[in-house]
Design a protein that fits this description.
This protein has strands spanning about 5, 10-15, 20-25, 35-40, 45-50, 60, 70-75, 80-85, 90-100, 105-110, 110-115. With about 120 residues, the protein is mainly β.
């Protein structure tokens, strides 16, 4: 059973940067595709970025495209989310998720809080 642990969240001012990490254990890392999701206060959790099993394909929601970058290091069993030019509306709990080939994301981390102050 794969296990995900996010880290790297915190408080930053508008325009700042953070890099989130998702450490993966308990599974065959390169057999999973991964995604980052976020849940702002009082709102639903939504997908913001995904990456394929070998990292050749990525996708982003419109609100973060050009500011956020998802990547994976298969040698370190870690998925990253580089977040630049952060805005107050990026404030949320950020979650890492894993999915097996052909399946939806089914395993989630505990989340990490990101707060962007104006």
């Amino acid at each position: 059973q794969v296990h995900l642990v996010e880290s790297g969240g915190g408080m930053v001012q508008t325009g700042g940067s953070l890099r989130l990490s998702c450490a993966v254990s308990g599974g065959t890392f390169d057999s999973y595709h991964f995604g980052w999701f976020r849940q702002p206060p009082g709102k639903e959790r939504t997908s913001i970025a995904t990456i394929s099993r070998i990292g050749t394909a990525t996708s982003y929601t419109d609100s973060v495209r050009g500011r956020f970058t998802i990547s994976r290091d298969n040698s370190k069993n870690t998925v990253y989310l580089q977040m630049d030019n952060l805005k107050p509306e990026d404030t949320a709990v950020y979650y890492c998720a894993a999915g097996e080939p052909g399946q939806r994301f089914g395993t989630w981390g505990q989340g990490t809080q990101v707060t962007v102050s104006s």
